[in-house]
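Input record, target 12 of the design panel.
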């Protein structure tokens, strides 16, 4: 195909796609199987002026999702299949449209009664939290899917995660208690304040080191919720060997990134779990010898995760051996748990 022919072909293809988008935007929602939920510039897709991101939703794919693990806790949500397109305006050649990929979004009402949308990809966060996307999704649900909209409102109360708001703290979140990561082990006078298992409170803390940034969420949940969410049906095993309950650490920027643990009060041992190749495993046990020394033991020698070692705390708060270190996600969570959570 010649350059001129290719240009004519691409222009015609774009014109056809643009007409389809315009029809969807201007037509009746109820009679369209697809609809544009977002069209605009986003730095995560292209990163330069002249590149427009278009998010197209598949209306026939809307369905309910029980026990969705949202950034605010476990909620009843709905999902929709979407496609991401990149439209690039090339000076002298015209506009070219390329499909980036397919994805799924999840939406629900938060505790303030506002519609929230999330996905399993961090690069989509800016778009899904934008006023443009949320207002268009809200309008779609109100006008053409009133049963879904009313169901979201009706289940708002059950979706709301009861949390405490420690207003005496310099920072706190409406979606959970903002706590500071301790730098010592608890003493006899230390107070265990929050009962995550009983009241489903949410504790949020910032990483207390230079290696990791961002905020992390500590919750208590039934491991089967995570198991069903992260393990494909085809890969699920009959015997999962999961505890009855565990405490889960979630990176709030990347909700798909998590670790979980149980705690033995009699021994002071933390047993840590993670998802490895479509299997949730207890990969290591950790315990503090003292605040400056942390010991770990691998629990599954067949997995290349974990290490048998004694780690020493450095001045920055990180625990190292001569060759490796413990993820601050783990050590920060352990210290927060020991100081704040009722056991």
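The sequence produced for target 12 reads:
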């Amino acid at each position: 195909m010649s350059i001129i022919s290719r240009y004519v072909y691409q222009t015609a293809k774009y014109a056809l796609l643009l007409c389809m988008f315009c029809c969807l935007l201007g037509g009746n929602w109820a009679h369209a199987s697809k609809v544009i939920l977002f069209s605009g510039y986003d730095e995560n897709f292209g990163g330069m002026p002249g590149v427009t991101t278009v998010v197209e939703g598949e209306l026939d794919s809307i369905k309910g999702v029980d026990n969705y693990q949202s950034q605010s806790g476990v909620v009843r949500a709905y999902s929709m299949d979407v496609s991401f397109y990149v439209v690039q305006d090339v000076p002298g050649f015209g506009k070219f449209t390329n499909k980036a990929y397919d994805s799924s979004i999840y939406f629900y009402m938060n505790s303030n009664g506002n519609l929230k949308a999330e996905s399993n990809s961090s690069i989509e966060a800016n778009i899904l939290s934008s006023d443009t996307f949320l207002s268009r999704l809200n309008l779609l649900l109100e006008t053409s899917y009133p049963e879904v909209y009313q169901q979201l409102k009706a289940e708002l109360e059950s979706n709301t995660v009861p949390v405490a708001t420690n207003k005496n703290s310099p920072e706190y979140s409406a979606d959970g208690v903002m706590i500071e990561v301790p730098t010592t082990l608890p003493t006899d006078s230390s107070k265990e304040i929050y009962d995550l298992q009983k009241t489903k409170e949410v504790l949020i803390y910032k990483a207390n080191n230079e290696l990791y940034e961002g905020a992390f969420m500590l919750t208590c949940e039934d491991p089967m919720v995570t198991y069903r969410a992260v393990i494909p049906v085809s890969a699920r095993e009959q015997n999962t060997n999961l505890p009855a309950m565990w405490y889960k650490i979630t990176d709030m920027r990347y909700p798909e990134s998590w670790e979980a643990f149980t705690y033995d009060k009699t021994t002071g041992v933390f047993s840590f779990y993670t998802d490895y190749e479509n299997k949730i495993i207890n990969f290591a046990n950790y315990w503090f010898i003292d605040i400056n020394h942390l010991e770990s033991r691998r629990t599954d020698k067949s997995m290349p995760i974990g290490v048998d070692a004694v780690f020493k705390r450095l001045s920055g708060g990180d625990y190292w051996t001569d060759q490796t270190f413990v993820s601050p996600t783990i050590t920060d969570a352990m210290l927060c748990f020991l100081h704040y959570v009722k056991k």
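The chain is about 25% helix and 35% strand.
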